[in-house]
Amino acid sequence: MIRVVYRWRVESDRYAEFVQWWHEGTLRIRSDHPGAMGSTLCRPSPPGETVVAIARWKSQEDLERLWKSAGGSEFPWAEMESVELLEEVDHLTTEV
Question: How many helices (H) and strands (E) does the chain have?
Answer without folding.
Answer: 2, 4
